[in-house]
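Hello,

Following up on my earlier ticket. Below are the two sequence lines again, exactly as submitted.
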Amino acid sequence: MPIDVSAEVIRNHPLSTDYNVLALRAPAIAGAVAPGQFVMIKPGRGFDPLLRRPFSVFEVLRDADGTATGLTILSKRIGASTAQIYDAGPGQRMMCLGPLGRPFTVVDPPSEAWMVAGGVGLAPFATLAESLRARGVKTALFYGARRAAELFYLDFFRQLNVELVLTTEDGSLGEAGRVVGPLDRRLASRPASAPVMLYGCGPEGMLAATARIAIKHARPCQVSVERVMGCGLGGCYSCVVPMRGEDGRFHHVRSCLAGPVLAADQIRWE
Amino acid sequence: MDLSVRIGALTLKNPLIAASGCFGYGVEYADIVDLSSLGGIVVKGLFLNEREGHPPPRIVETPAGMLNAIGLQGIGVRRFVDEKLPELRARRATVLVNVCGTTLDEYVEVSRILSDNEGVAAIELNISCPNIKEGGIQFGCSLIGTHDVVAAVRKVTTLPVIPKLTPNVTDVASFARAAEEAGADAVSLVNTFLAMVIDVETRRPKISNIVGGLSGPAIRPIAVRMVYECRQAVKIPIIGMGGIAEARDALEFMIAGADAVQVGTANFVEPGIWPGLLDGIGDYLRRHNVARVSDLVGTLDLREREKAWTSS
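Thanks for your patience. The regenerated structure is below:
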């Protein structure tokens, strides 16, 4: 059940001139969140910008006995709200509503889990990797960015024994090109009898390509979609995605309620 | 202190109503809001059949507001009655239904179906959605159309009939008058203002429908003025709305002449807004020694102004 809290900023860690990790004291939300769920945050007061913004929960912060104390979000500065989030300071408060939406379905061994992330789409995979590790699932992260300086938290994933497959568009780290390239090759060489679940989050083009590759290799794939979202609660009908329904036809479903995690092969990719 | 208000034959426990299109079918907010604590809920507009609405993007933010063109996506009246109304009744919500139609007959048919079911308190006629070509607005932008749709629905239901007026006309008060003459129990206003946002880098519209309806605090002063104009024109109750985000906004509408108010866009920003709004209204009534919230309606004080004019 979602709750709305005025959350104090614990710290704000800039990762680059655009990316930051913001930690919020929101123990009740952090204690209830499942990998892939999101929060709606209004970083400033007043009417401009008016609406909240959706963010995947990036990390759950815990104290020494493991009790959830807060959560972080991974943000990329692209507009007014994310600029406020980039500039936020400790002690500042912002409204935070969550946990919202349907989480990832976490697989068990013998299935492997391959996470496919582009840019800020890394966000839902930190908590997912922890869940997968707790279940003993062999996990890989296919992670692409424009350049090496925009690939973050690599040691975090290494410490969870996640295999890293990195790509950069400028070739400054890992393979040059897009992240779906190595994904396609790895799937092609994997025996059909060896199960693997794909998890995708990132730019729409990357997600569509991941979905096509998953279909081509007959692998299940869950994607966390990002849409312009007004409320996060199903009230406004702005965040819809065309999904195949039980009648075989496509219908607009609200990604805040039915998603943000959706079955990639049921989406009509534009 | 009496917070109840009367809208025709309908008594609401307080003047705060969730606006259509901004509160889903109500059930979506049940975890956050005690639905029975609201004066009423106007559920999302319903046609006879399901509608998919417009492709995304469907909303874009503007200064102190937002533009939407959802395109009245909806589950249709029969699925609403089967799937949503029982839960709303179980939660003791006062349910007003926003009724849409592409033809006069459709308004009548949807209203008839709703009237046959227990648990619907009133019908709000959507003759003002700016975002779809074939629905409503051709009635809402014509005095004769407004009169005809209200009169036709009036004949088939004993429920209060409340046409929701568009602000996208020269003289909204004349539409309130047409509605009153046709037998409306009340009018609600305003729906959104037709508007447009362009991405100058790509030179493309920011929403798929090119144009959409502007809502939020940005429109509030215009909406208050329109409620004030309608108050001069009609005797029937007025439900005012447009950018209400705090208690004094609601009070402003009531002083201008609204018997009750609807809260729309603010639900998106602050879903738990309702108790604070109600407390703020209660505080105001106490501070001003007003026993009944209905005593506030239309109490705009123009005396000093008249005195100043006559003495100069």
